[in-house]
Amino acid sequence: MPAELPAAPDYQNRHLRHVLSSAAAALGLSGFENRLGLPQASITVVILADGLGEENLASHTGHARFLASAWRTSSTARVLDCGAPATTACSLASLGTGLPPGEHGLIGYDLYAPPLNRVVNQLGGWPDDLDPAVWQPHPTVLQQAVAAGAQVATVSRTEFRSSALTRAALQHSGDFLGAGTLEARFAAAAEWIEAQRPRGSRQGPPVPLMVYLYVDEIDDAGHEFGVDSAQWRGHLEDLDAAAARFARRCSERFGEQVSILLTADHGMVDVAEPDRIDISDRADLLAGVADTGGDPRMMYLYAEPGQDAAELAQRWRSEFGDSAWVLTRAEAVEAGWFGPVQQQVLQRIGDVIIAVHAPIGIYHIARTGRHFLKMVGLHGSITEAERQVPMLELTGRAFAP
């Protein structure tokens, strides 16, 4: 195994997978554990800012003064790990199910699906012949929260209401509120909460309310322009302003009944165009490779029958050993990168994994098409910049020590 591997994500403690289940426990719902020490509330809102990593926020606090005020206060800020790979499908499934990647199985952007004998996309290109409920059969936290007595709302883009990823990772129960703009999503969340708690109508203990609110503008800008771009900073400013107005509105109406949390699914790093490497014409590297998958910063190699994974890993290590951790699947599983791995998930992981730590991306354009080479901001690997995400409490309420 390569030396000096990074530590595995902290799946047992400060990890993204515990956010929704801790929120449910903080609402007083039975069957959940408040692993993250969230403040007790009868209304909890979880904002998922796609692509807003801990290092990304730390580098741009001047453009996010409201978020930065919580980030700088030890009682209202935590740093969490997301899983491996640090990519949206994987992280949303961990958030939604409360499980590590090796159990929920959405363990990359592109994955080999043994029932179909081909590589399939887990984000926007989900194939019609792969049933999300079979591919990811575990119940979600939102489903369990509804069963435990909470009223639940998911607030996201309208087109995500019935997407395959939504059905696999969140299987949202309760209400779905679709809105195209960031401002409209925050407004919809506030209006839904207020409709459940009209003024002057409270009799007896209130029904617990849980809201999941998804924001993807930052991630989109990062991919297209980079995390150091004016466009990315502009979207961060928009999020900051909307979150501040939302927190103020909820706090003024509900006081300490409400807790508003903001976290993210991964961070992002910029990769210059000359460092986006296409291996499509590298017959020496692709010999013995039946297919590729994963992400540009955590590529999976699926070996042909009879190809020794260790030999294949050594060949790629000779090429990328100074820029990436190159492991066999068995080595990565033993290192705990994916948490416990269920048998039906094991074959979805590549026989060899190339987890980049240098500022490069590795592409197989012959399979994916050239449009991916246009992306500036990338993520997927297990570096701190990609795997560490903030968790902020935006009403000023303290996490438990």
From TrEMBL:
It comes from the Bacteria. GO terms for molecular function: hydrolase activity. InterPro entries: Alkaline_phosphatase_core_sf (IPR017850), Phosphodiest/P_Trfase (IPR002591). This is Alkaline phosphatase family protein. It comes from Nesterenkonia alkaliphila.
